[in-house]
Amino acid sequence: MQFYERVKAELEERKAVGTYRELPLVSFNQDNILLDSMPYVDLSSNDYLCIARDPKFFKTFINTVTDTSTTDSDFVERLLLSSIGAGSTGSRLLTGNQIPYAYCEDLLASLYNGSIACAVDVADVTAGRPRKVQHLSVQEAQRQMALSGGAVGGAGGLGGAGGAGGTVAAVDETEPQRERSCLYLNSGFEANLGVLSTLFGKGDLLLVDKLCHASIIDGMLHGKAKALRYAHNDMEHLARLLEQHAADYDNVVIVTEAVFSMDGDFANLKDIVALKHQYANVLVYVDEAHSFGLYGEDGLGLCKELEVLSDVDFLMGTFSKAIGSQGAFLLCYPEVKEYLVNFMRPFIYTTALPPVNITFTMYVIGLLKTTAMQYKREYLRKISAYLHSYLQELDIAPSDSQIQPLITGDSDRAQLASKIFRRSGLLAMPIRYPTVPQQQCRLRLALNCNLRIDDLDLIVNLVRRYRRLFV
Description:
Elements: H1 3-17, E1 26-29, E2 32-35, E3 38-42, H2 55-65, H3 74-82, H4 99-113, E4 119-121, H5 122-127, E5 133-134, H6 138-147, E6 166-167, E7 181-185, H7 188-199, E8 204-209, H8 214-222, E9 226-230, H9 235-245, E10 251-257, H10 269-276, E11 282-287, H11 302-305, E12 314-318, E13 328-332, H12 334-343, H13 345-348, H14 355-365, H15 371-393, E14 403-409, H16 411-423, E15 426-427, E16 430-431, E17 441-446, H17 453-465
Parallel strand pairs: 3-15, 8-9, 8-10, 10-11, 11-12
Antiparallel strand pairs: 1-2, 2-3, 4-5, 4-6, 7-13, 12-13, 14-17, 16-17
Helix pairs in contact: 4-14, 7-8, 15-17
């Protein structure tokens, strides 16, 4: 069959089986999402903390990072303006690795390593010399703070210049552990695809949860490592696979999501870590796309909340969901970051994200531990629990998180359920095969901080009234 005939035939087949897709044109207006110029309550986006849609938040960010009222320096003004540039000019290995990347990666690594921020020598950065980055002891940080008049580099911006020409912050007083590094990547898809296919090859085995995201599956398929999939969250199956195969490979990597993107349930992270400890050659890779920014007292994710972070070798998180920005990161050991910079093709051969995205990401990360952000996270948990409790009364299995699936089974019922929700002012997009398995089509309710109790009651009433549509 010739090319264009084949393309048309495959599209017609998609239409016939109800899996044809079109791009919806949407915009946000205050608390609502607009689709075809009609306002709806948003139940479909991943903007869990409602940061991406908030123009006042972004305006405050712009005003903050461009405030030059405390200095008359033209250089500082140009530096600040360059941090919100709209274009990166090239890949990170050429001209795209601008100053915000360095600060953001160091900030995020320092937070996971237990400090507020790194000590970065601003004089080195602005003079073009190699950066000097230190994670200081409590005593040394306090000494430098005293010398600089108490100035500490802010966690929400580019950092302030202290008396020693740098930004200073303290680490905790617990036993020192080997420090992690952070690599900023363009997207979660690029991260999973590139990291898994680059780091692991012949002689390695990937054990991947059956319901992991398509980006993980593509990373598995594009690499040279052997890959097996274990039944979703089935620790007995995973244990059997480890027992059968661990001795036959140099490295075995358990790959899972922390919060599963379609089902909203938690991975059994503590059990996975316990299995890791039974073997000398097992590593753990966790995708925190839907948990970074939402879990843990400081918003650093489910691994941190469950106290398994030290046993996770690779932690991938995204900035495009709770953080409301763009991009992703990999938390790993320094030699892994160095290896990826040298060998990861999707990283090497792509244009870097613009500075404004990186600076905005850093700004939001710096606010994660504030009272306002803690309130947002707690509110999201409370409304999630509220919805779960009422759905359970209707014999619908509640999830563990802000993502709540309403399984319809076939595609037609998913589309019908979506239309019913829209007639009531709720935008809940249907999720169909091949995004989810056949006969597992659904509405995927993604709760966010703008939802009110009235909105949740409306959801429950609709589910109760049309209970026959949901399995």
